[in-house]
Amino acid sequence: MKHKTFFWFVFPSVLAMLLFIAFPIVSVVIQSLHVAHEQVIITVQNCGPFGCTDSTKIDTDATAALRAAEPLGRWAGLTTYFDRGHLATNEVAQAWTTATSLPDFLGRLINLPFYKAMFFTLTFTAIVTPLTLIFGFAIAVAVNSAAKSLRGPLIFFTLLPMIVTPLVGSLILFWMVDARGIVGTLLQWAAGDPDLSVKASTPLMWAMLMVYGVWHSAPFAFIVYYAGLQTVNKETLEAAVVDGASRWERIRYVVLPHLLPLTTFIALIQLMDNFRVFEPIVSFSAQAHATSLSWAIYNDLGGETQQLSSAAATSVLTILCIALLLTPVLVRTWRDFARK
Amino acid sequence: MSTIGQRQPIALRVFAITFLVFWMVIAAFPFLWTLWGSFKVEGDFFSKANWANAVFGVMTTAETGAALTGDGYHGAWVQEEFWRATFNTTLVCLFVVTISLTLGTLGGYALSRSTERYTFWLLIIALIFRAMPPITLVSGYLPVFFEWNLWGHLPTAIIVLVAINQPFTLWMLTSFFKNIPQDLDESAMVDGCTRFQAFRRVIIPVMWPGVITTGLFSFLLAYNDFAVTAMILSKENQTMVPKIASFLGTTQTKGNVMFAVAAVVSATAPLFILIMFFQRQIVSGLTAGAVKG
Question: How many domains is chain B partitioned into structurally?
Fold first, then answer.
């Protein structure tokens, strides 16, 4: 295809991505290096019958004028990155020198907002991704052994948790585990504790968020594995049977090797999606117990005073984490491509 | 696998069936429960006294005279104007799907036919963009949108969602177009068509299965988005998902949580119907990327 024709074909699509993805990234980086102007404070002299006193007050007009003249704010360099809300270098250094033991240090570390969000995001990703793979595989094997006529409805209901809007799906679960909801009541009964409340307990809230995570993404793993199971080479399987391979050996040596590339694919997609965990935290109002990087950005942007610089700094850090996470994949793709 | 499947030992079969039933309950029961509960009053849906009240509607009968009530729906749709959000969602989804598919088919077709090195880089950049959480971009949008008075309008949200959708659309359509034989459009070009004419007359008529599948996923992205629409739409232009989230903030205090339940059921219904009609396409779309590796 000629370069010129190619250019015109991809132009609209590339323009859209350039304007609304690439430029905003640049804008986010610039934003994160600035902070909003402080309010202009002027000193006024009040003279009364008992002499003069100096008082300070906020000059609203001047503040507004300054903010309008330089909407980006003033240059701050990397200070936003190192402040308490982000990398918190001072607090970390202090915790490191005063901490009595490593667990003590880590305990203090995860009380800092950024590390708290990071810790949850990473734990969530690390736990939900493998569970999704296992659960999805189990469902795929089970559906595959069901009668043909049943498979359609089975797939239909399996798809539901994945297709339904994450915010809506997590709300539905949240209402059920509410202390007055059906699952909440069941849990209270099972634990023998009538005051048990998922909302009030950090470990339960974490568990609930991860249960939601697996519930939401297992169908995706299921679909991919199920499609993979349809294409397992039947002759190899029959041959394995003839050679006297047991059921387990057939799965271990024929089916699993066939599904391995699919596992890499699902794991990659799941890593990307679990790393952006966000909606369930809003639905479960879990922010007191668990926050994620995406939630931290949302919180900065949505508050009474929009903290753009703070949100921008968290965004840049998030993008860097994603890039780090993706590097092995990108390197491999590049090697494959270069070999061709 | 049927011949081998029949030889399953009984224990394994029982285990598989139990597991399937267990999964079906987990997957489907929450939706049925919420659908049923949305016709109750709050005292039943969140029952302090007895969970079975939610099934039989004891409080609902006491308060409204019947075991089922449409009060939640009335409150959400009429009083809180959920219909407006539904209308906005319809507009957003319609335009996002149409525009992303138009841009995506053109781009995807070119990417599938060019053998130059830059196509690889373009796809890799698209993959990186796909991996970024959309909310990281929002703090880049806001100052500019405020400055140029673009904030809060539906067209802005549509354009942004189209752009966020592009990486995925490009990947999916590129792999789809690669499956259409090159000979098809090349022979048209030998017969004197330009590249665009070949695309229009030869490729467009055969591309619909792939386009419909991709369109479904564009639709889901636009329909399900919360992070972006919550941030860049004003209150009166809100779509369904941010509207539901705002119900939580305002109505939980007033005791009108049933509005949110009714709204949640209303937002799930279209997806239910969507899966019913397009199950095959959704499955083939999800596996398209994987099976090719």
Answer: 2
Judgement on whether residues A234 and A166 belong to the same structural domain of the protein: yes
Same domain, A197 and A264: yes
Whether residue B244 and residue A301 make contact (CB cut-off 8 A), yes or no, is: no
The mean pLDDT value for B21-26 works out to 94
B105 Cα to chain A: minimum distance (Å) = 9
Q: Do A241 and B4 touch (CB under 8 A)?
A: yes
**Is A164 found in the same domain as A94?**
no
The answer to whether residue B180 neighbours chain A at the CB level (below 8 Å) is no
pLDDT digits (tens, 9 = 90+) for A193-203: 888 888 888 99
Which pLDDT value is given to residue A214?
96
Q: Which residues of A96-113 are buried (b: 16+ CB within 10 A; e: fewer)?
A: eeeeeeeeeeeebbeebb
Q: CB B28 to CB A160 under 8 A?
A: yes
Partner-chain contact B139 A28, CB within 8 Å: yes
User: Both A134 and A145 in a single domain?
Assistant: yes
Domain of A324? 292-329
CA distance A47 to A160: 73
Is the minimum CB–CB distance between B290 and chain A shorter than 8 Å?
Answer: yes
Please report, to the nearest 10 degrees, the dihedral formed by the alpha carbons of residues B234, B237, B240, B246 taken in order. 30
Q: Which residue of B20, B37, B267 is in closest CB contact with A142?
A: B20
Q: Which of B1, B244, B245 has the CB atom closest to A144's CB atom?
A: B1
Q: Are residues A146 and A231 in the same domain?
A: yes
* Whether A89 and A179 share a structural domain: no
What is the identity of the amino acid at A69? Answer: A
What single letter denotes the amino acid at residue A214? Answer: V
**B131 shares its domain with B209:** yes
Q: Are residues B117 and B9 in the same domain?
A: no
The model's pLDDT over A5-36, given as tens digits with 9 standing for 90+, comes to: 999 999 999 999 999 999 999 999 998 998 88
Q: Which of residues 107-136 of A touch B (CB under 8 A)?
A: none
Q: How many domains does chain A have?
A: 3
* Range scoring the smallest mean pLDDT among A1-15, A244-258, B164-178: A244-258
Taking an 8 Å cut-off on Cβ atoms, the answer to whether B110 and A71 are in contact is no
CA-to-CA separations, B44 to A332, B53, B55, B74, B263, in angstroms, rounded: 55, 5, 8, 18, 17
Range of the domain at B108: 81-292
